[in-house]
Amino acid sequence: MSEDASLLQDLNDRSREVFRRVVESYLNNGDPVGSRTLTRSMSEKVSAATIRNVMQDLEYMGLLGSPHVSAGRIPTEKGLRMFVDGFLEIDDLTLQDRESIDATMGKNGSDVGAMLDNIGAALSGVTHGASLVLTPKHEAPIKHIEFVSLAADRALVVLVFADGHVENRVFTPPPGQTPSSMREAANFLNALAEGRTLSELRGVIELEITRRRREIDGLAKELVESGLAVWESGSELAEGSERLIVRGRSNLLDSQSQEDLERIRSLFDDLERKRDIAEFLELTEAGEGVRIFIGSENKLFSLSGSSLVVSPYMNADRKIIGAVGVIGPTRLNYGRIVPIVDYTAQLVGKLISDRS
After folding, report:
1. How would you classify the pairing of strands 74-75 and 64-65?
2. Across the chain, which distance is largest between two alpha carbons, in Å?
3. pLDDT tens-digit series, residues 69-96
4. Which residue intervals of the chain bear CATH 3.30.390?
């Protein structure tokens, strides 16, 4: 039995009601809840002193906290987790929310990237939070690779896939590259690339570099290692194996008090540097359906104190290929947002499966 489940069993009916009402009030308005306020809403008549004692017990258990000495109580991250797992009632998806999401799906024809961009904007608008969309990698076999020098510190790689898809990615090459060395690197890659995806190609190249390290020109080897490492790690949006779409930054900033703004800015600094973005898929792979990460439960949001409601979407082979989610303050309306994220993920998966 988990610690939260054990705590839940230890609560009597009065403690459960006090806890539930404190959390629900906090999620609705973000304010601490005092004992006198609760006396007016409890199902049985009980004194403020009795409620204060119950709240003190809940605070001792780590479920409630007090932002100021004289203030009421608010739920801790531990309390929010227990509420989500044991008390949360999931609402039905409203017709208005469903229509808002559906309206984005028919646009842009076969352009999956534009469709996902619109979905991110729609999720942000519907939930009044910041949306997150992790798009699938293009895993078709490669037909041809070419490098083009743009400047001393910028180069373009053109990737032509066997299914006709073409991608142009800008990256920073190692110092000292020449058009000649780039052609050599492209020739080396093309000799190995045919019939292989980018992921497969990287593995083959690592083996080849190990076997033929002395035979490969030093500068060309550097270009290969640097370029492919950039593509695979996703360290920059235009170069990553996955593409991250974040929408609704202003929604998240507007929903916070002034003292929270610096923490929220640190969240977006992390997002914009693309730290740990690949981890979103790993987080969702433990099981199908929506998962909720509160505050420090996800290291990416540990400083900002934000919550993430995220769900994977799958292709026709039932393989997880991406994720959609909503980022917001810990006092998100989880009951409403969970079905929105769930519905969006299922719809995206179906559309991508149909188009493929």
Report:
1. antiparallel
2. 85
3. 666 899 999 999 999 988 998 989 999 9
4. 142-233
